[in-house]
Amino acid sequence: MKIETKETVKGDINPLSPAKAAFYSAILPGLGQAYNKKYWKIPVVYAAIGTGVYFTIDNNKKYNQFRNEYKKRLNNGGLIDTSDPTYGRLSTESVIRGQRFYQKNRDLSVLITAGLYILNIVDANVDAHLLQFNVNDDLSLKPDLQTNPYTFKQDFAFTLTYQF
User: Fold this and answer.
1) Which segments constitute the DUF5683 domain (predicted)?
2) What is the secondary structure of 44-79 as a DSSP string?
3) Suppose 94 and one of 33, 90, 112, 154 were both cysteines; which one would form an S-S bond, judging by CB atoms 3.0 to 4.6 Å apart?
4) What is the DSSP letter of 143?
């Protein structure tokens, strides 16, 4: 009986690599993805964070417009300027509702943008961990078709192989 030997190539594991990737992504979003050589993720990171920043700025601008209109009405003793094409038809209650609506959306946009920034850091960290993961044929999971001995029908199964 001949014993078959396999040679495995083991690379050096850098335990600080995930921390370095996370640190780089915290300094500049997308830099951790570049450190991990996952360049295709960088536009995704900037699109996600950029979209969040855009909605934060837009909602803040609209909130300030409604706020300024409300302040103007308070200074005029509650009188509505009907010649104003934007706010002339709105009641004071509608202006207050618009102000609250855009304030809520602005705050939500800030939270979502912060979450996407944190997700960028977590992605760089996890990806750096997975780059060091040993993937070889000693551990494999393969789909398999087996014949059921009782019904003689084909059954779909998974075969887990582990070799020492």
Assistant:
1) 15-164
2) HHHHHHHHHHHHHHHHHHHHHHHHHHHHHHHHTTT-
3) 90
4) E
Listed by start position, the domains of the chain span: 17-134
Cα gap 137→135, rounded to integer Å: 7
- pLDDT tens digits, 71-119: 999 998 888 888 888 888 999 999 999 999 999 999 999 999 999 999 9
Sign, CA torsion 116/117/123/126: negative
CA count, 13 A, side-chain hemisphere, 113 = 17
Phi, psi of 48 (to 5 degrees): -65, -50
59, 74 contact by CB (below 8 A): no
- The 10s digit of each residue's pLDDT in 49-68 is 999 999 999 999 999 999 99
